[in-house]
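tmp note - Transcription termination/antitermination protein NusA
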Amino acid sequence: MNKELLEALDLLEKEKNISKAAILEAIENSLISACKNNFGTADNVKVSVNPNTCDYSIIQSKEVVESLGNKPSLEDKATKISLAEARMKNPNLSVGDVVLVPVISKEFGRIAAGVAKNVILQKIREEERKVIFNDYYMKERDIVSGVVTRFMGKNVAINLGKIDAVLAESEQVKGEELKLGDRLKVFVLEVKDNPKGPRISVSRTHPEFVKRLFESEVPEIRDGVVEIKSIAREAGSRTKIAVCSNEPDIDPVGACVGVDGVRVNAVVDELRGEKVDIVNWDDNPAYLIENALSPAKVIAVVADEETKEADVIVPDYQLSLAIGKEGQNARLAARLTGYKIDIKSESQARELGVFDSLDGNEDMSTDSEDYTDVDNNEDAEAETENGNDIEE
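out:
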């Protein structure tokens, strides 16, 4: 070995974060492999590499025998030494003794050198793969940034710097048009290791993607002061999140919105215009359901904690808003709260006698301020004839 190799190993460790010790171990193993190829066995070989100089030594332990004969086998030549030759090294040796014999590197020849080189290169590739895998495995369930580099059928390759991730069709936001060179953030779903290198699956539709975006924009969430308790998302269209504060003087909704909406708008920009509703979490399921149905005003909510079902009454003019376009507002509220929600207008409730059954139940104010809608101007459409039963 030489000074150039030592410098190369130092460079690999510095630039690629590949352990110099691991490379030296690979060199030792490669030299043992070369011995086995050259001598037929390596069971009696000891290889050591000096980590400071990269100089190496190869020692064979050989048994002293009377004679190797006229045509000794390759293995006999590697494991045995004649008494006459042994006594040239040490005149006190006898048959049956073991002598340590250094192997001169030229005995390997060109083939052995090639074997050593190939094994070293393979180890370098393996170590690089391990480094990349460990790096991105630590980012699983987190957000990374990347650039769209190519399209593979309906899947998209996102270059993350050291490796490409796969954004499968099922994890792409419907209607979101991606172009080569687009820089975007993605949620790391899974990192798998395989011989060809790590396979990273990413998503832009996962609800936790929104959660991580808010964590990156809102210091109070990162610090644990504000907590995201629940998320319901229809990717590309609308997301509802319920938040609470662990400090009474911190408004969780306001913290997420930011001054002039700067924080929530940063999230919306990354989601390419997806609407985001932020509501206050409440341990009382009735109040939580009222908040979740915002921006609609609610007259009353009766929630059954055992069956996870809730009856909701809203003013007649608020029914379509409560349900939302194609039922989206009520559907997201059901997912956010975990309740099956039956929404009726005030007229429907009176006609069905529902108000009579509300005696003794919670009748909540319609003046709640527990809601923020980034864009609530969407036209609401709904059928209102027979009530509206929305499941999670």
